[in-house]
Amino acid sequence: MKVVPIIILLILQSSILSCQNISNNTNTSMPPLFEFKGDFHTRIILKEFARLDNPTLGRYDNDLEQGEFGLYIDDAEDMNPEPSAEQIKAIHYLQQHQQEILESVFHFCKEKVIPDYKEFLPPADYPEAYPKLAGVADLPSFLGINEIMIKTSHKDGAAYIVLGFTSMLDIEHGLYIIMHQLRPIGHGTMGDLEYDKMVEDMNAGKKPEEMPVPKEKLKVDRLIQPHVKYGKLKPWQKSHNQYYPYKFVREDKMEELQQFFEQNSAAAKKYKHATGLLELAVRWKKPEMVDYLLTQKPARVISAFEIALRNQDFPLAKRLIAYETNINGYIGQDAFLFKILRQFYKNYAEKVNRTAYELLIETTF
Fold first, then answer.
1. pTM (predicted TM-score)
2. Domain for residue 22, yes or no?
3. 290: closest CA among 261, 328, 322, 254?
């Protein structure tokens, strides 16, 4: 009487083990889900997107063989070293639904993008811009993946993403498509992407009191140190550190400028503050600050030299040449100096301001 239950138990155990084996095999065949390691500009593996393998339409630094592409996570201007939970969810959704997303992109291109472009890019005049698209398999003749951007804006627990393509419609400026999971929201080039449609979609159905309240901009009056968790700065923090001391020149605060270099010598060297600040001091005609910044050993003075020439401050231009003896080596690489020489010739021929431009040509060579 006990034989039947034992047999049933063995069958159940065998079934469970089989399911576990299938699950394990499935997991090992799938790339691991994205794990954030401190870099907001990083890489992501998308094997299905590697189908967009037209070499003339893909960015050179993408690895199509491995399906590896650039991933740019927009960073909120705060001190949290992590992306938001909504951004991580959007990245994981992208990884887990690649084929469906490509299907959605295909239909969106057929039904919306291409009709929009035909209004100002006639197929009769530009037949190469409109290859035959019968299905997703034809997308490589039309699109090449460049980059993926994860926005901070989100809805229903998932952030919006932007898929950046090179497109036959506009090889130079590309085609960018805003997505929310499987839904295309808008399109355009990088410079005219329809972010207004993203905002409309994000706020659709919300009552006035449910609308997001703009956050007050974070004010930080110091250099920011990397967070201890990753030892890295967020992109906005790098930008802050780059431009933080510029206010001392702008506001003519000589004492604060000197204190900054004395107390932050390593950071000043890393961000080449002396070079950038020298350009501003020359542009805004602050001779005392120019003198001080030259003592801080700027890495290059070519831009400051150009500004001095534009201001016709030839004595300062001479000083800058004395500082950087290779300044003549930049002439062939810089169109502005050619313009200066052409203007010198014009003024000299017309006998206008000859003395100043004779000094200019002497300074330049």
1. 0.80
2. no
3. 254
* Residues across the chain: 365
Which of 187, 205, 223 is where one domain is finished? Answer: 205
CA distances from 7 to 1, 15, 19, 93, 255 (A): 11, 12, 19, 42, 89
In a domain? residue 199 = yes
* Structural domain contains residue 176: yes
Question: In this structure, are 189 and 253 located in the same domain?
Answer: no
Domain final position from 185, 205, 225: 205
The candidate with the shortest Cα–Cα distance to 193, out of 180, 176, 169, is: 176
Please check whether residue 41 is in contact with residue 70, taking contact to mean a CB–CB distance below 8 angstroms: yes
Domain range for 191: 41-205
217: left (phi over 0), alpha (psi -120 to 50) or beta: beta
In tens digits, the chain (365 residues) has pLDDT values of 445 455 444 444 544 444 444 334 334 456 789 999 999 999 999 999 988 877 777 665 677 778 888 999 999 999 999 999 999 999 999 999 999 999 999 999 999 999 999 999 999 999 999 999 999 999 999 999 889 999 999 999 999 999 999 999 998 899 999 999 999 999 999 889 999 999 999 999 888 887 878 888 888 999 999 999 999 999 999 999 999 999 999 999 999 999 999 999 899 998 899 999 999 999 999 999 999 999 999 988 888 988 887 788 888 888 887 787 555 555 555 555 666 666 666 776 776 666 666 666 665 55
Question: Is the same domain home to 335 and 243?
Answer: yes
Give the pair of three-digit tokens for residue 102. Answer: 């490509």
In a domain, 25, yes or no: no
- Same domain, yes or no, for 201 and 246? no
Look up residue 280 and give its two tokens.
């501003």
